[in-house]
Amino acid sequence: MDINKxxxxxYEDLQKSIKSEEEKSNFxxxxxxxxxxxxxxxxxxxxxxxxDFIWDxxxxxxxxxVSGQGMAKVAxxxxxxxxxDPVTQEKLKKLFMIRKEVSLNHTVLNKIDEIGLHExxxxxxxESGAKxxxxxxxxxxxxxxxxxxxxxxxxxxxxxxxxxxxxxxGFTRIQYQVKDKINDVLKELDIDPRTVFEKATIAWHILxxx
Length: 210
Known about the structure:
- It is built from 12 helices and no strands.
- It has helices at residues 3-21, 27-44, 55-58, 61-66, 76-84, 86-99, 109-115, 117-123, 133-143, 154-163, 171-188, 196-209.
- It is mostly helical.
- The longest helix is centred in the N-terminal third of the chain and has 19 residues, at 3-21.
């Protein structure tokens, strides 16, 4: 299917979803508020302060409205272990500092890669259970939704990338290129989603229409 047509169908599917949700749980509203509150907390946070508030934003209904957790719930105990790790804490603080930069664009990708949160997770030893990769992906989405999609499942993300003819590697770079390609098509179609959350959600709706 033509990429422009695919993005247009996804956008139309998003609008139908928004309309159908108006009298229900309205995940678009809840998700947007969750993101806005999280970003406000990061903005008010100082580098020498703890980041204990982060846990409340990774799990719960608000986070689920941004990016589904699927079967990942079983990994929550290991997520807590990972988040409380001192090395993880320092890496998260560095990511927060990037979030606080004036403009988030392709120039921050190298900085994010240098911090290496995903690589740290790969090396991290857990006594038992699965690595909380989906939650770590979700956290990256929540922090950098301006340049990412809401897709936290790597398999789904790669599926979308293939449909958009994107050959990037690594979660962060695939995210950026998928989002960038969708943004280019939206501009070409003269479509301007109302919020950063709606724009980031279009990728998920591509999964629904392919």
